[in-house]
Amino acid sequence: MNAAGILQIVVFFVLLTALAIPLGIYMARVYQGERTFASVILGPIERGLYKLCGIKPEQEQHWTAYAFAVLAFSLIGILVMYGLMRLQALLPLNPAGEAAVAPDLAFNTAVSFATNTNWQNYGGESTMSYLTQMLGMTVHNFTSAATGMAVAIALVRGFARRSAKTIGNFYVDAIRSILYILLPLAVVFTLFLVWQGVPQNFDPYVSATTLEGASQTIAQGPVASQDAIKLLGTNGGGFFNANSAHPYENPTALANLFQIIGLLVISGGLVVAFGRMIKDGRQARALYAAMALMLVVGIGVCYWAEAAGNPAIASQGVDITASDQAPGGNMEGKEVRFGLSASAIYAAATTGTSTGAVNSMHDSFTPIGGMVPMVNLMLGEVIFGGVGAGLHGMIVFVIITVFIAGLMVGRTPEYLGKKMESKEVKLAVLSIIVFPLSVLCLGSLAVVLPIATPAIAAAGPHGLSEAVYAYASATANNGSAFGGFSGNTPYHNSALALAMLLGRFIVIIPTLAIAGALAAKKTVPPSAGTFPTHGWLFVALLISVIVVVAGLTFFPVLALGPIVEQLSLAAGTLF
Amino acid sequence: MLKQMKQSILATLVITLLTGLAYPLVMTGLSQVLFPAQAHGSLIEKDGHVVGSALIGQTFTGAGYFHPRPSATTDTDPQDATKQIPAPYNAASSTGSNASPSAKSLSSDVADRLAALTAENPNARIPVPVDLVTTSASGLDPHISPAAAEYQVPRIAAARGIPEAQLRSLVARMTSGRTFGILGEAHVNVLELNLALDQQVAQR
Where do the TM regions start and end (chain A) (predicted)? Predict the structure, then answer.
């Protein structure tokens, strides 16, 4: 660890917060239907879209209708994308001549993109045509992000409203998310990335003759436009197999910094918007502080572990000292232009959110360094989380926290003036319990079923880490991987798709039910017995609840995976 | 229900046209006007043909060139289409090794690379820096650390018959430091360094 590396982490946090605040204020105005500076241009387009789709924006939905719309919209997206991949060989914009995608892989990929997971059992440049990347991947990057944002806003309305029957209109929330937030940011970010060196073309793959006379085929494509939205929408699906480690997807240290900010800024902004919409900024600051604290601890541990390096390499006489001349540490699966600190920030941010884009290969991190992204997944992706998904996931943890605090003092728990009764707490527990259930059950099958185990590449404890990481990533809708795991088999394509669907919809439906139940409630004014939910005491309690829930569930698996591996490695045992 | 399904289908269609067609096409048009070189992949031409991209690493094996990091990319075996064989710097199929830190194979790969480097660079002035014995995340890393360049200086000086000091100043000139002094790490672009080297001294 060195001064530049630590300073880089500080700069990142300052910039993130400085950008999240104005964005959040703007987003609150958008979702409350107020005029913004963008309304002059986007207002007519918005009204035109509603007309084309037959949507009446003033017609609000009961939570059940809202949930049905989410499901219908996602289902149609899955079907369209599946068809596109199966037919790509017959469709235009396919200069590399990619064949039709196999049915099980196409199913897995369609579910993966519709659930905002972007788990990729394929290499983009060797599987997907330009048309599939645009009409499939890029579109889902917008729609799945907009769906998450809509659900979060619906939940916030549940708190903000009193004795109401409806929680908003899904189509309006989704279209506003795309038109006013995702699309304008993506346009600016695309141009920034192209300026830094990310290609944006429809050229055939380039054939180069190297200085030594060898030939090299260099993949091309409309990379930047997909790269921008993959980050802003916390999707994470790379244009190329190596994702944001590929120098065409992430060419410079500056591009890298803004990629990390890009994948956090909307989730951070949504917390700010939450504060504006419930008219209590203190509540938002408490959630932001809890998220930022957990993120900084993760980055710190990961950076420290990677800087300490791999003893199996260092012991051979390789120089792993960091200096102004060399990155040092554990450089297997990392790029020289990023080094250790920028890789650690990326790894923690991409797994704290549901992004899953990577600028270094998590599978090759030191055991403790790789445990950080794994733990971030296991905490339920509430460290800023997916766009929307992070905020509604965090609020569900808040409900559990006030419930536990209520048990301790013997009072009915309340949050933001709404009494948390048995129905809300049951729904919150349901949406939390599906995660460990899916990860542990499907993860266990992955390490015992004969049909499943060939996917595991590493021997020893690291093999367990690979399988558990895969199912944690799929259920958390993250999409990053310990990439040695070869999931492209009919069994894993199906089981991972199941995990993604469970992790997405068995969380969204109870969340919308909570929103509906809360909206129908009256608001009670705070009394002397109300547990304040904005001070440091609450932040500490909230973090403890998140860590204890995940810790009790997953500690045994972490002990058998990364912790045993680290101890063996230090003792010189290899597998 | 039926009305809801119809709204979903129409919304999917309209959003697909907007974000899947209009957005990438407009972005392509704008990028090619504003940043044409980058938009087309930062290609480098020499004597009228493309020699590579400034952003994509390529293999160098000659003693008179700076060598890049090891690469884990593969290609389909021409003998057997079901198999993958090592093909370093395959820019049509990026990948890292995904080697587990506790894998015996990683440790022995490092030992092999170390032995090869030591044999090729008997007069190196510094120990082998870690980036020269580890594969990058993309398999296409265009850069090496300044230390990795320095490690190779004596070999190249001997192969080209030029003083080491001349090479050191070339490396220093071609080194990019951390952005604004804090972001990322110092790095040297191997292809650009070798092009500059060829321009300065003809290869013997």
Answer: 6-28, 65-85, 134-156, 177-195, 253-274, 286-306, 382-407, 427-452, 495-515, 536-559
